[in-house]
Amino acid sequence: MTSTTTAPTASVPLAPGALPLLGHALPLLRDPLAFIMSMSGYRTMVRVRLGPSSAVMVCDPALTRQVFLNDRVFDKGGPIYDRIREVIGDGLSTCSYTLHRRQRRLCQPSFHPARLAGYGEVFARASQRKASSWTDGDVLDVTQEMMTLTTRATMETMFSGALPADTLRQALADTATIVSAFFRRMVTPALLRRLPTRQKRRYDQARSRLAATIEQILADRRANPGDHADLLSALIGAVDEESEGGQKQLSDSELADEALTFFLGGMETTAITLAWALHLLSTHPDVQHRMQAETDEVLAGEPLTAAHLPSLHLAGRVLTETLRLYPPAWMMTRTVREDAELGGVRLKSGSTLVLSPYLLHHRPDLYADPDRFDPDRWRDAAPDRAGYLPFGAGPRKCIGDQFALAEATLALTAIVARWELTPVGDQPFRPKVETSLSSRGLNLRITERRRDAAAPGAEPGTASPRPADAAPQPVTGTCPVNHKE
Ligand code: HEM
């Protein structure tokens, strides 16, 4: 419904610096975060130009939430999702409102807490294997290490098996090529996107190779059906009882899209969250030592398992704060499906909206000293949910949030339990801004921890170890934010 007292979209101020044809593509490509943060002076909305087309960027937390909640009117779409759709088709994360509810009902059982308990054990084992594969004094390419960890863990939880080493390496390289191309392709006008450049050829090859790998995995599963207790079995077995007359199960092509969606959506975001958390711990040794103390107390010499998750409080706060400072999905887009009103402004059907958790997470009116890494800001206070959106909100909220938090908490714990992390060089490390806030190029030095001395900064008694005879807990992330809507 459009009210008569609303103002036209043209009344929303246009961000300075737009060029004909390119719009704001240059500042967005040159320094996207600086460009986004330059919007923080606008309290409600500002217009930006992505190529020749215009978009409205929503700067206010309550309006952002309004957009997330009303996915019928503010539907998935816009330049980010148009590019992602080129790779994963109409999977759960890219499909429109009309297809979404059925797909969500079919995918949700794969993330049921009962299944997460099994996945948690895979994460704990994979994390410990990874942490044991390093040598004292190593300088790690942290992003690469975390990508191999989350890819292996994702492969095992999704497809209950490992890929041959060279296929896995190729899948990692293809994923990196695709993910880093998304953002460039999003801000490049369509005409230039179609030019047969070397980058475009690499992108096309990576897309088809990754799709072929997933196809092969699905073909192997068809040849060897049954419940493998993995995500793929849950997807294959899912039945949508509410689908009257329609298809009650996922078709083969839907299965391929969902498998690729979970693979791409899950492993890169979790890997870079972990890489940023390790970076922050290396630059904040006081927090690192407190985490080591908590880890020592909770594990008490036992191997790490998913049952330790509910006691890893500081690890949870570190991840909450990491996701505030470096939300992988730093920017999202939406398409307005019918003429609508938002914050007193009339939006025409077909307009594009831009939402930015990064902008909200760094607003000084929402977070005191917003650039400071301070996990303890989450100790007592539940965050204002409208101003903390690393997983989005509403019906399109991340389906893998608890999966990711459990995986990241266990990985962080396994690493910190054994290694001391220190930065390499004295230059501040800045994100490479792509579709996500990439930590590509981050190196850290690891040294084996000395166990004979208490970790400096230890807070004895702050952790609550699980009694030896306690029943295993359902796996949930330890993040104090209630990520459930
Ligand atoms: C730290 C890790 C992760 C972060 C920060 C993250 C972030 C997000 C965000 C912000 C959205 C909403 C996008 C929007 O509204 O436009 C989303 C959706 C989604 N995520 Fe995640 N995600 C993470 C991990 C995962 C994992 C592990 C999986 C799967 C295994 C996953 C699968 C999905 C899917 C399928 C959607 C679409 C949900 C829907 O539209 O119903 N994500 N994620």
Automatic annotation (TrEMBL):
GO terms for molecular function: heme binding; iron ion binding; monooxygenase activity; oxidoreductase activity, acting on paired donors, with incorporation or reduction of molecular oxygen. Pfam families: p450. Keywords: Heme, Iron, Metal-binding, Monooxygenase, Oxidoreductase. It comes from the Bacteria. Signal peptide: none annotated. Residues 445-485 are annotated as: Disordered. Heme binds at residue 398. CDD domains: CYP170A1-like. Its cofactor is heme. SUPFAM superfamilies: Cytochrome P450. Belongs to the cytochrome P450 family. PANTHER family: BIFUNCTIONAL ALBAFLAVENONE MONOOXYGENASE_TERPENE SYNTHASE (PTHR24291:SF50), CYTOCHROME P450 FAMILY 4 (PTHR24291). This is Cytochrome P450. It comes from Mangrovihabitans endophyticus. The lineage of its organism: Bacteria, Bacillati, Actinomycetota, Actinomycetes, Micromonosporales.
